[in-house]
């Protein structure tokens, strides 16, 4: 680095920032693709993405890092790459010509060679493991292929450097073009307007569409071209269904969901754990990661956007037997639900979501997390009072949550402690246990009085006020303190009845998951975790909405209404959902 800034070599300085912009560029495509395919409009392939594909594609940024290393090596050994100007017209033209000619031609034949069974089984099959592509699928290749592709794409860059016509714009522009076309070709939604091909018909030979390359991933033996279909036309490898798939994808409408689960953001970092955020984070249970603290400017910006943006948005889609499922998110954080002045705008968003689902012909909308909070909207009853003619059934899922809690209690248990903020679920659990002859201990007099008022005289005999929690099974909710947990004996099992997990302060005790169940294999397109729950585990509140639709129970379950606990538990097992037998750490 020299003292005079005018003599600084921008070529060396710009490499690292450019690598970061490439990562951001790719992430924008990932989020956009997942959002569009979840909504369903212009989606090309309907098959499912599972955790296996997400795990296989989680190292998509390795290719950018590898390219960066090679750029630094090239800068070190090639004197001609130093002090490149911002722009040179002759270098830009040369780059375009070299890509259109040698690069596209050589790639076409390399790609065809990679589909020969010898090379395909050893190399290219890894890329084609993803039948349903995402933007990051474009760079998932074995290391040998990455080297071949870099050599190929280096032809225009190296030529312009050696001829002295290179510029920062030609380098950055060419690499950005490659990234853009790669991401677009694998995004699984069609968005290239038909009119541009009508205005300039030869364009169909110079630019592919997402549906064009999608056929290559489903048919394997057609549409080999890189970004320009010209050589497929020349050598007769263009898929005959290309135009038909393009047109049908363009006119495809949004999916009409049968079931909508309405959730919300939890912590500021939860935006990254959404399916629309970082794919590898979404595929794991939500937990705090140190490196997310380094992204606080982006986190702050996303909080501002969600604060201003006043509509729910589609997070993911799933398929359960014949039912189309969608998850929508309210752009509000958990802390905002605790602010009195935020209640009205939050309820307005929930109400708009319910009415939108009603207009779409949705059968059931389930309220997740704090969207059903009693203080917020009386467990959803507010919306039924305002709109008594709703066709969509609003479900808070309390009955299944109660059933899961009751069936999590070890067999033979005769005494339990109930501690935490008393909710609709807590009251129902206490009532069921006391009626069943199980003694329910409470630690505080106010909780004892509230529960006593809800019980019959006979059931109330099993409700006991005790300052010491002697039973080994504790049913806990929000409001459980560290002091409360210290009263539990060693080996106590904590079973949450709340939406949010219990803070673990005892290493000598067992902590169950919040009410949830394992999802059956026929629940499709599951590639992300629901908040803090493990893979393929769903909250009881979310499952309840699916069961109401699958069983065609044409009733609401919100406010003071509680569905038959035994009936919904039996239905959950019949539909393939299974209890969590293992404790979740």
What does this protein structure show overall?
- By secondary structure, this protein is an alpha/beta fold.
- 48% of the residues lie in helices and 10% in strands.
- The protein is built from 27 helices and 15 strands.
- The strands form three sheets. Strands 5-4-1-3-2-13 form a six-stranded mixed beta sheet, sandwiched between helices.
- The longest helix is centred in the first third of the chain and has 30 residues, at 10-39.
- The protein starts with 9 loop residues before the first helix and ends in a 6-residue tail after the last strand.
Give a quick precis of the structure:
The protein is built from 27 helices and 15 strands. The protein is of the alpha/beta class and 585 residues long.
Indicate the overall shape: elongated
**Share of β-strand residues:** 5-15%
Relative helix content: 40-55%
Instruction: Tell me how many strands there are.
Output: 15
| Strand ordering within the main sheet | 5-4-1-3-2-13
Low-pLDDT stretches: none
**What distance separates the N and C termini?**
51 Å
Number of helices: 27
Determine the mean pLDDT: 93
What class, by secondary structure content?
Answer: alpha/beta
Profile the largest sheet: 6 strands, mixed
Radius of gyration (CA) equals 29 Å
Features:
585 residues; alpha/beta; six-stranded mixed sheet; six-stranded parallel sheet; 27 helices; 10% strand; elongated
């Amino acid at each position: 680095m020299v003292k005079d800034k005018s003599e600084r070599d921008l070529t060396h300085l710009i490499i690292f920032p450019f690598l970061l912009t490439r990562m951001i560029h790719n992430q924008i495509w990932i989020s956009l693709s997942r959002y569009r395919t979840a909504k369903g409009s212009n989606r090309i392939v309907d098959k499912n993405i599972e955790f296996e594909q997400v795990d296989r594609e989680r190292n998509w940024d390795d290719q950018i890092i590898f390219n960066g290393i090679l750029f630094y090596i090239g800068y070190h050994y090639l004197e001609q790459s130093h002090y490149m100007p911002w722009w040179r017209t002759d270098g830009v033209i040369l780059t375009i010509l070299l890509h259109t000619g040698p690069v596209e031609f050589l790639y076409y034949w390399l790609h065809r060679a990679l589909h020969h069974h010898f090379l395909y089984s050893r190399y290219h099959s890894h890329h084609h493991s993803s039948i349903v592509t995402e933007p990051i699928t474009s760079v998932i290749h074995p290391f040998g292929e990455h080297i071949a592709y870099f050599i190929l794409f280096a032809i225009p860059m190296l030529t312009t450097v050696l001829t002295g016509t290179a510029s920062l714009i030609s380098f950055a522009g060419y690499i950005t073009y490659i990234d853009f076309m790669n991401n677009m070709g694998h995004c699984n939604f069609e968005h290239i307007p038909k009119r541009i091909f009508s205005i300039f018909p030869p364009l169909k030979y110079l630019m592919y569409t997402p549906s064009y390359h999608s056929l290559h991933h489903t048919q394997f033996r057609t549409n080999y071209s890189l970004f320009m279909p010209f050589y497929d036309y020349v050598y007769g490898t263009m898929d005959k269904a290309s135009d038909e798939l393009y047109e049908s994808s363009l006119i495809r409408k949004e999916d009409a969901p049968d079931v909508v689960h309405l959730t919300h953001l939890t912590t500021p970092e939860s935006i990254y754990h959404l399916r629309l955020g970082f794919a590898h984070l979404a595929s794991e249970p939500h937990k705090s990661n140190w490196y997310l603290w380094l992204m606080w400017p982006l986190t702050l910006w996303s909080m501002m956007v969600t604060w201003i943006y006043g509509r729910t948005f589609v997070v993911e889609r799933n398929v359960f037997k014949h039912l189309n499922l969608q998850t929508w998110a309210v752009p509000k954080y958990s802390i905002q639900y605790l602010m009195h002045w935020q209640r009205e705008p939050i309820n307005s968003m929930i109400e708009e979501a319910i009415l939108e689902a009603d207009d779409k012909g949705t059968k059931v909308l389930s309220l997740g997390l704090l969207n059903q909070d009693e203080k917020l909207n009386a467990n959803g009853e507010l919306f039924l009072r305002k709109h008594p003619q709703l066709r969509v059934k609003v479900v808070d899922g309390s009955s299944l949550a109660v059933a899961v809690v009751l069936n999590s209690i070890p067999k033979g248990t005769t005494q339990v402690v109930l501690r935490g903020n008393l909710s609709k679920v807590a009251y129902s659990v206490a009532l069921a246990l006391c009626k069943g002859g199980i003694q329910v201990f409470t630690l505080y007099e106010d909780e004892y009085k509230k529960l006593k008022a809800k019980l019959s005289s006979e059931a109330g005999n099993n409700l006991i006020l005790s300052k010491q929690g002697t039973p080994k099974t504790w049913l806990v909710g929000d409001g459980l303190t560290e002091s409360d947990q210290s009263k539990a004996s060693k080996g106590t099992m904590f079973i949450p009845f709340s939406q949010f997990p219990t803070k673990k302060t005892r290493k000598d005790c067992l902590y169950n998951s919040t009410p949830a169940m394992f999802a059956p294999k026929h629940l499709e397109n599951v590639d992300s975790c629901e908040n803090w729950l493990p893979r393929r585990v769903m909250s009881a509140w979310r499952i309840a909405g699916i069961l109401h639709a699958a069983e065609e129970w044409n009733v609401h379950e919100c406010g003071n209404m509680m569905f038959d606990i035994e009936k919904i538990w039996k239905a959950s097992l019949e539909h393939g959902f299974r209890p969590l037998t293992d404790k979740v750490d």
